[in-house]
Amino acid sequence: MSREKSGSGDVGIKAIAKKLGVSASTVSRALNEVSGIHPTTRKLVQETAKAMGYVPHLGAKQLVGKSSKMIGLFVPQFEFEASSGFIDMFAPLQQALKGYGRDAIFFSVPFIGYTDNRLAECINSRGLEGAIVFPAFSESHPIMKEALQLQVPCVNFENVVGPRCSSVISDDREGGRAAGRKLLAEGHRIIGYVNGPPWVRVCEERYAGFREALTEADIIHEANLVENGNFSGTSGSEAAIALWENNPRMTALFCANDLMAMGAMMAFSQRGIKVPESISVVGYDGDHFTAYTSPPLTTVRHPIREMSSRAAALVMELLEGGTGRRESVTPMLIERQTIARWL
Protein backbone atom coordinates (compact mmCIF):
# COMPACT_ATOMS: atom_id res chain seq x y z
CA MET A 1 0.00 0.00 0.00
CA SER A 2 1.67 3.26 -1.06
CA ARG A 3 0.75 6.68 0.18
CA GLU A 4 1.33 10.00 -1.58
CA LYS A 5 -0.21 12.30 0.99
CA SER A 6 2.25 14.63 2.73
CA GLY A 7 2.12 17.50 5.20
CA SER A 8 1.28 15.33 8.21
CA GLY A 9 4.39 13.18 8.33
CA ASP A 10 2.79 10.70 5.85
CA VAL A 11 5.22 10.18 2.93
CA GLY A 12 4.55 7.45 0.40
CA ILE A 13 6.64 5.17 -1.79
CA LYS A 14 5.64 7.02 -4.97
CA ALA A 15 6.94 10.32 -3.54
CA ILE A 16 10.31 8.72 -2.78
CA ALA A 17 10.45 7.14 -6.23
CA LYS A 18 9.69 10.48 -7.89
CA LYS A 19 12.41 12.24 -5.92
CA LEU A 20 15.01 9.62 -6.86
CA GLY A 21 13.86 9.07 -10.41
CA VAL A 22 13.34 5.34 -9.96
CA SER A 23 10.29 3.09 -10.08
CA ALA A 24 7.96 2.61 -7.12
CA SER A 25 8.67 -1.12 -7.23
CA THR A 26 12.40 -0.43 -6.81
CA VAL A 27 11.70 1.72 -3.76
CA SER A 28 9.36 -0.90 -2.30
CA ARG A 29 11.89 -3.70 -2.76
CA ALA A 30 14.69 -1.61 -1.27
CA LEU A 31 12.65 -0.68 1.80
CA ASN A 32 11.45 -4.23 2.32
CA GLU A 33 14.95 -5.75 2.01
CA VAL A 34 13.98 -7.78 -1.09
CA SER A 35 16.91 -9.30 -2.98
CA GLY A 36 17.91 -8.08 -6.43
CA ILE A 37 18.57 -4.45 -5.45
CA HIS A 38 22.11 -3.08 -5.65
CA PRO A 39 23.45 -2.23 -2.15
CA THR A 40 24.19 1.34 -3.22
CA THR A 41 20.63 1.82 -4.48
CA ARG A 42 19.18 0.19 -1.38
CA LYS A 43 21.19 2.52 0.88
CA LEU A 44 20.20 5.61 -1.14
CA VAL A 45 16.51 4.70 -1.03
CA GLN A 46 16.58 4.03 2.72
CA GLU A 47 18.43 7.26 3.50
CA THR A 48 16.07 9.29 1.30
CA ALA A 49 13.02 7.67 2.88
CA LYS A 50 14.29 8.50 6.34
CA ALA A 51 15.06 12.10 5.37
CA MET A 52 11.56 12.50 3.91
CA GLY A 53 9.92 11.12 7.06
CA TYR A 54 8.65 7.88 5.53
CA VAL A 55 7.03 5.49 8.01
CA PRO A 56 6.17 1.91 6.97
CA HIS A 57 2.53 1.07 7.67
CA LEU A 58 2.98 -2.30 9.37
CA GLY A 59 -0.73 -2.78 9.87
CA ALA A 60 -1.84 -1.75 6.40
CA LYS A 61 -3.17 -5.14 5.29
CA GLN A 62 -5.33 -5.49 8.37
CA LEU A 63 -6.56 -1.91 8.23
CA VAL A 64 -7.76 -1.68 4.64
CA GLY A 65 -11.42 -0.76 4.69
CA LYS A 66 -11.87 -0.75 8.46
CA SER A 67 -10.88 1.06 11.63
CA SER A 68 -8.02 -0.27 13.75
CA LYS A 69 -10.00 0.50 16.93
CA MET A 70 -6.64 1.08 18.64
CA ILE A 71 -5.79 4.07 20.83
CA GLY A 72 -2.14 4.74 21.63
CA LEU A 73 -1.26 5.58 25.25
CA PHE A 74 2.02 7.49 25.35
CA VAL A 75 3.85 7.24 28.68
CA PRO A 76 6.97 9.26 29.63
CA GLN A 77 10.20 7.39 30.18
CA PHE A 78 12.20 9.36 32.75
CA GLU A 79 15.96 9.23 33.22
CA PHE A 80 15.60 10.74 36.68
CA GLU A 81 13.61 10.06 39.85
CA ALA A 82 9.96 10.84 39.23
CA SER A 83 6.50 10.04 40.51
CA SER A 84 4.97 6.87 39.10
CA GLY A 85 1.43 7.98 39.89
CA PHE A 86 0.39 7.88 36.23
CA ILE A 87 0.72 4.09 36.37
CA ASP A 88 -2.50 4.08 38.38
CA MET A 89 -4.26 5.34 35.24
CA PHE A 90 -3.40 2.28 33.12
CA ALA A 91 -6.21 -0.02 34.25
CA PRO A 92 -9.06 2.54 34.42
CA LEU A 93 -8.11 3.98 31.02
CA GLN A 94 -8.09 0.54 29.43
CA GLN A 95 -11.46 -0.24 31.01
CA ALA A 96 -12.96 3.05 29.84
CA LEU A 97 -11.73 2.52 26.27
CA LYS A 98 -13.08 -1.02 26.29
CA GLY A 99 -16.48 0.44 26.97
CA TYR A 100 -16.25 2.21 23.61
CA GLY A 101 -15.05 -0.92 21.79
CA ARG A 102 -11.44 0.28 21.68
CA ASP A 103 -8.19 -1.35 22.74
CA ALA A 104 -5.13 0.40 24.13
CA ILE A 105 -1.51 -0.03 23.10
CA PHE A 106 1.22 1.49 25.26
CA PHE A 107 4.31 3.34 24.03
CA SER A 108 7.17 4.34 26.32
CA VAL A 109 8.59 7.65 25.09
CA PRO A 110 11.80 9.28 26.40
CA PHE A 111 10.94 12.50 28.22
CA ILE A 112 14.39 13.86 27.37
CA GLY A 113 15.94 13.19 23.97
CA TYR A 114 12.67 12.78 22.09
CA THR A 115 13.16 11.51 18.52
CA ASP A 116 11.56 13.69 15.83
CA ASN A 117 8.45 12.18 14.23
CA ARG A 118 8.22 9.47 16.90
CA LEU A 119 4.50 10.14 17.37
CA ALA A 120 3.81 10.00 13.63
CA GLU A 121 5.81 6.78 13.37
CA CYS A 122 3.80 5.12 16.15
CA ILE A 123 0.47 6.27 14.75
CA ASN A 124 1.20 5.22 11.19
CA SER A 125 2.98 1.94 11.94
CA ARG A 126 0.14 0.73 14.17
CA GLY A 127 -2.75 2.44 12.37
CA LEU A 128 -3.83 4.20 15.56
CA GLU A 129 -7.14 6.06 15.60
CA GLY A 130 -6.03 8.45 18.30
CA ALA A 131 -3.64 9.10 21.16
CA ILE A 132 -3.78 9.75 24.89
CA VAL A 133 -0.63 11.43 26.17
CA PHE A 134 0.24 11.02 29.84
CA PRO A 135 1.72 13.60 32.23
CA ALA A 136 4.21 15.29 32.15
CA PHE A 137 4.25 15.99 28.41
CA SER A 138 3.36 19.69 28.38
CA GLU A 139 2.72 22.09 25.49
CA SER A 140 6.44 22.84 25.19
CA HIS A 141 7.38 19.17 24.77
CA PRO A 142 8.07 17.99 21.18
CA ILE A 143 5.50 15.19 21.35
CA MET A 144 2.69 17.66 22.07
CA LYS A 145 3.92 20.05 19.39
CA GLU A 146 3.87 17.12 16.98
CA ALA A 147 0.37 16.10 18.07
CA LEU A 148 -0.94 19.61 17.41
CA GLN A 149 0.78 19.71 14.02
CA LEU A 150 -0.48 16.28 12.95
CA GLN A 151 -3.98 17.08 14.23
CA VAL A 152 -4.43 13.47 15.24
CA PRO A 153 -7.30 13.02 17.75
CA CYS A 154 -5.40 13.45 20.99
CA VAL A 155 -6.14 13.88 24.69
CA ASN A 156 -3.62 15.01 27.30
CA PHE A 157 -3.52 15.92 30.98
CA GLU A 158 -1.41 19.09 30.72
CA ASN A 159 -3.90 21.74 29.61
CA VAL A 160 -2.94 21.58 25.91
CA VAL A 161 -5.90 22.27 23.60
CA GLY A 162 -6.09 22.51 19.83
CA PRO A 163 -8.55 21.85 16.98
CA ARG A 164 -8.10 18.07 17.40
CA CYS A 165 -6.62 18.02 20.90
CA SER A 166 -8.55 17.97 24.18
CA SER A 167 -7.35 18.04 27.78
CA VAL A 168 -8.46 16.74 31.16
CA ILE A 169 -6.80 18.53 34.04
CA SER A 170 -6.93 18.12 37.78
CA ASP A 171 -7.65 21.51 39.36
CA ASP A 172 -4.24 22.04 40.93
CA ARG A 173 -5.11 25.51 42.18
CA GLU A 174 -8.04 24.09 44.16
CA GLY A 175 -5.79 21.30 45.44
CA GLY A 176 -3.24 23.80 46.73
CA ARG A 177 -6.04 25.82 48.27
CA ALA A 178 -7.42 22.75 50.07
CA ALA A 179 -4.01 21.89 51.56
CA GLY A 180 -3.49 25.46 52.73
CA ARG A 181 -6.93 25.68 54.33
CA LYS A 182 -6.42 22.39 56.17
CA LEU A 183 -3.12 23.52 57.69
CA LEU A 184 -4.65 26.85 58.68
CA ALA A 185 -7.63 25.08 60.27
CA GLU A 186 -5.18 23.11 62.41
CA GLY A 187 -3.63 26.30 63.72
CA HIS A 188 -0.53 26.57 61.53
CA ARG A 189 0.53 30.05 60.46
CA ILE A 190 4.21 29.74 59.50
CA ILE A 191 4.18 27.16 56.71
CA GLY A 192 7.08 26.24 54.47
CA TYR A 193 6.54 25.33 50.83
CA VAL A 194 8.71 23.02 48.74
CA ASN A 195 7.97 23.79 45.11
CA GLY A 196 8.90 21.87 41.98
CA PRO A 197 10.43 23.72 39.01
CA PRO A 198 8.57 27.06 39.32
CA TRP A 199 7.98 27.38 35.55
CA VAL A 200 6.00 24.13 35.42
CA ARG A 201 2.24 24.74 35.15
CA VAL A 202 1.21 22.44 38.01
CA CYS A 203 3.76 24.09 40.30
CA GLU A 204 2.45 27.54 39.49
CA GLU A 205 -1.13 26.45 40.09
CA ARG A 206 -0.54 24.52 43.33
CA TYR A 207 1.45 27.34 44.89
CA ALA A 208 -1.05 29.97 43.71
CA GLY A 209 -3.92 28.07 45.36
CA PHE A 210 -1.91 27.63 48.56
CA ARG A 211 -1.17 31.37 48.71
CA GLU A 212 -4.83 32.18 48.08
CA ALA A 213 -5.79 30.11 51.12
CA LEU A 214 -3.30 32.03 53.25
CA THR A 215 -4.54 35.34 51.85
CA GLU A 216 -8.06 34.42 53.00
CA ALA A 217 -6.60 34.32 56.53
CA ASP A 218 -4.77 37.65 55.99
CA ILE A 219 -1.40 35.91 55.83
CA ILE A 220 1.22 36.84 53.25
CA HIS A 221 3.50 33.95 52.38
CA GLU A 222 7.05 35.25 52.55
CA ALA A 223 9.69 34.31 49.96
CA ASN A 224 12.02 32.91 52.64
CA LEU A 225 9.44 30.17 53.28
CA VAL A 226 9.84 28.76 49.74
CA GLU A 227 12.48 26.38 48.41
CA ASN A 228 12.48 24.94 44.89
CA GLY A 229 13.03 21.24 44.28
CA ASN A 230 12.85 19.13 41.12
CA PHE A 231 10.11 16.67 42.17
CA SER A 232 12.66 14.11 43.42
CA GLY A 233 12.80 12.82 46.98
CA THR A 234 16.39 14.02 47.29
CA SER A 235 15.46 17.58 46.39
CA GLY A 236 12.59 17.47 48.89
CA SER A 237 14.98 16.35 51.62
CA GLU A 238 17.44 19.14 50.90
CA ALA A 239 14.76 21.82 50.59
CA ALA A 240 13.01 20.76 53.81
CA ILE A 241 16.18 20.99 55.89
CA ALA A 242 17.07 24.37 54.35
CA LEU A 243 13.62 25.69 55.30
CA TRP A 244 13.84 24.20 58.80
CA GLU A 245 17.23 25.76 59.46
CA ASN A 246 16.27 29.17 58.06
CA ASN A 247 12.83 29.31 59.68
CA PRO A 248 13.02 27.97 63.27
CA ARG A 249 9.38 29.00 63.93
CA MET A 250 8.03 26.98 60.97
CA THR A 251 5.42 24.44 62.13
CA ALA A 252 4.26 22.88 58.84
CA LEU A 253 5.51 22.03 55.38
CA PHE A 254 3.54 21.65 52.16
CA CYS A 255 5.31 19.95 49.23
CA ALA A 256 4.31 20.17 45.56
CA ASN A 257 4.47 16.38 45.16
CA ASP A 258 4.56 13.23 47.27
CA LEU A 259 8.15 12.24 46.49
CA MET A 260 9.46 15.55 47.84
CA ALA A 261 7.21 15.20 50.90
CA MET A 262 8.57 11.72 51.54
CA GLY A 263 12.12 13.01 51.13
CA ALA A 264 11.34 15.74 53.65
CA MET A 265 9.98 13.22 56.15
CA MET A 266 13.09 11.06 55.79
CA ALA A 267 15.37 14.05 56.37
CA PHE A 268 13.40 15.12 59.43
CA SER A 269 13.52 11.58 60.83
CA GLN A 270 17.29 11.38 60.36
CA ARG A 271 17.66 14.55 62.44
CA GLY A 272 15.29 13.47 65.19
CA ILE A 273 12.59 15.92 64.11
CA LYS A 274 9.27 14.16 64.66
CA VAL A 275 6.39 14.28 62.18
CA PRO A 276 3.79 15.50 63.04
CA GLU A 277 4.71 16.38 66.67
CA SER A 278 7.42 18.88 65.68
CA ILE A 279 6.34 19.65 62.14
CA SER A 280 3.33 18.73 60.00
CA VAL A 281 3.80 17.62 56.38
CA VAL A 282 1.43 17.53 53.39
CA GLY A 283 2.20 16.08 49.97
CA TYR A 284 0.50 16.20 46.58
CA ASP A 285 -0.56 13.66 43.91
CA GLY A 286 -2.01 10.90 46.09
CA ASP A 287 0.46 8.20 45.02
CA HIS A 288 -0.73 4.87 46.44
CA PHE A 289 2.46 4.24 48.43
CA THR A 290 1.90 7.34 50.57
CA ALA A 291 -0.48 5.27 52.69
CA TYR A 292 2.51 3.23 53.86
CA THR A 293 4.95 5.92 54.98
CA SER A 294 5.60 6.27 58.69
CA PRO A 295 3.40 7.98 59.63
CA PRO A 296 1.02 7.73 56.65
CA LEU A 297 1.23 10.92 54.56
CA THR A 298 -1.61 13.40 54.24
CA THR A 299 -1.80 14.31 50.56
CA VAL A 300 -3.93 15.77 47.78
CA ARG A 301 -5.13 13.04 45.42
CA HIS A 302 -6.12 13.32 41.78
CA PRO A 303 -9.42 11.59 40.88
CA ILE A 304 -7.67 9.09 38.61
CA ARG A 305 -10.72 7.04 37.65
CA GLU A 306 -12.78 10.12 36.76
CA MET A 307 -9.90 11.59 34.75
CA SER A 308 -9.51 8.31 32.88
CA SER A 309 -13.19 8.01 31.99
CA ARG A 310 -13.31 11.62 30.81
CA ALA A 311 -10.15 11.16 28.72
CA ALA A 312 -11.70 8.16 26.97
CA ALA A 313 -14.93 10.08 26.34
CA LEU A 314 -13.02 13.06 24.94
CA VAL A 315 -10.95 10.98 22.52
CA MET A 316 -14.15 9.35 21.24
CA GLU A 317 -15.71 12.78 20.85
CA LEU A 318 -12.76 13.83 18.69
CA LEU A 319 -13.00 10.64 16.62
CA GLU A 320 -16.63 11.53 15.91
CA GLY A 321 -15.63 14.94 14.54
CA GLY A 322 -15.69 17.06 17.69
CA THR A 323 -13.28 19.91 18.33
CA GLY A 324 -10.72 20.10 21.11
CA ARG A 325 -11.81 21.35 24.50
CA ARG A 326 -10.79 21.35 28.15
CA GLU A 327 -12.35 19.64 31.16
CA SER A 328 -11.37 20.04 34.81
CA VAL A 329 -11.88 17.72 37.76
CA THR A 330 -11.46 18.48 41.45
CA PRO A 331 -8.77 16.73 43.52
CA MET A 332 -9.43 15.67 47.11
CA LEU A 333 -7.51 16.04 50.34
CA ILE A 334 -6.68 12.63 51.86
CA GLU A 335 -6.26 13.15 55.60
CA ARG A 336 -3.92 10.72 57.31
CA GLN A 337 -1.45 11.15 60.17
CA THR A 338 1.13 13.79 59.23
CA ILE A 339 -0.78 16.86 60.42
CA ALA A 340 -0.98 17.77 64.11
CA ARG A 341 -2.99 20.58 65.61
CA TRP A 342 -0.81 23.54 66.56
CA LEU A 343 -2.06 25.57 69.48
Automatic annotation (TrEMBL):
Stored Pfam families: LacI, Peripla_BP_3
Superkingdom classification of source: Bacteria
UniProt domain HTH lacI-type: residue ranges: 11-65
GO molecular function: DNA-binding transcription factor activity; transcription cis-regulatory region binding
Keyword Cell membrane listed: no
Keywords for the protein's UniProt record, in alphabetical order: DNA-binding, Transcription, Transcription regulation
Keyword Nucleus: no
InterPro entries referenced in this protein's UniProt entry, alphabetically: HTH_LacI (IPR000843), LacI/GalR-like_sensor (IPR046335), Lambda_DNA-bd_dom_sf (IPR010982), Peripla_BP_I (IPR028082)
Protein name listed in UniProt: LacI family transcriptional regulator
Organism from which the protein derives: Cohnella endophytica
